[in-house]
Amino acid sequence: MDCVQWTPVVYNDLLCSGDGTGRGLVMAYFNTVGWPLSTATSERGTFAEKILQAKQKAFLKLIEKDGIPLRLGVVKVLQNALADGAKVVLIGGTQSEYGVELTASALRQLPQEVAAQVRTFSINLLAEKDPAPSAAEAGSAADIMAQLRSATAGVKQQQLNVFVQSLTARDEESEEGRVPQAPSFPVNVDPNLVAVLSGTRRMLEPSFLAAVAATLSLPLSSCLFCAGTTSALQAAASAGMAPVIIPRRFAGNGQYDDAVAKFEGYEGGQASWPRLRNLIQ
């Protein structure tokens, strides 16, 4: 089905026109090419959800057979970084429930000696669906925003502590021979992010990256973050890391103001380890 199978060009265009969520991509697709005549306006949401479920099933099958390849040249960069004594972290996230599976697939595609030295973290960018509050519970939007702003400062530190504790427990399980589970942690809600406030998506947070650096006993200023999206780039910059953008295919002409450097890829000496290392020295 054309509505399930998207070419890279179509997918890139949808990323630019959608809201970043899986459902938003499906809605953007049909808003562009037109909805099936048999689908009433009131049924479009249900129809889009069915298409999204079909795409997610296809996505899982693709992951299970390692059908999403690593970017060319990245293995060599990781090998050189590890040989140089660098600590390498892989952060996997996706707008679906298969973030852990995606991270595991990436590890399987690395040489065994490299995968054994790479620390991994999986984040869930899929927003949870909460039941709609009643009118009495909802209150005014202004009151809610005020409460969020007043609570943010204290909650950020509390969430950071909780997350670091969960990662420590994860490491202890790994050392004891048990299979570590992806840590469960509260999401730091930024009232300035409309998408997060509306509950449609989650974002990679600077506090998350700070917690990852803390578990490795690394100062943020010595951390280099290779990002593929603007939101990840902004999170790294806000955390105090040196953010590098290596954009996805067809997004190379984008404007990335927060990046300390931009590379088209890893192959051909583009984002080589010596070049990356020089950015934090």
Description:
The protein is mostly helical and 281 residues long. It is built from 12 helices and 5 strands. It has helices at residues 8-17, 22-33, 44-64, 74-83, 99-108, 112-115, 135-138, 141-175, 194-197, 206-215, 230-239, 273-278, and strands at residues 89-94, 119-124, 224-227, 242-245, 261-262. The strands form 2 sheets. Strands 3-4-5 form a 3-stranded parallel β-sheet, covered by helices on one side. Strands 1-2 form a two-stranded parallel ribbon. Helix 2 (22-33) packs across helix 3 (44-64), helix 8 (141-175) runs parallel beside helix 10 and helix 10 packs across helix 11 (230-239). The longest helix has 35 residues, at 141-175. The chain is elongated, with a radius of gyration of 20 Å. The N and C termini lie far apart (50 Å). Mean pLDDT is 76; it is low at 130-157, 159-164 and 179-200.
What's the arrangement of secondary structure elements?
Blueprint: H1 8-17, H2 22-33, H3 44-64, H4 74-83, E1 89-94, H5 99-108, H6 112-115, E2 119-124, H7 135-138, H8 141-175, H9 194-197, H10 206-215, E3 224-227, H11 230-239, E4 242-245, E5 261-262, H12 273-278
Parallel strand pairs: 1-2, 3-4, 4-5
Characterize the overall form.
elongated
Q: Give the topology string: H per helix, E per strand.
A: HHHHEHHEHHHHEHEEH
**Share in helix:** 40-55%
As residue ranges, the low-confidence spans are: 130-157, 159-164, 179-200
Q: Count helical runs.
A: 12
Give a count of the beta strands, DSSP E runs of length 2 or more.
5
Q: What is the subunit arrangement here?
A: single chain
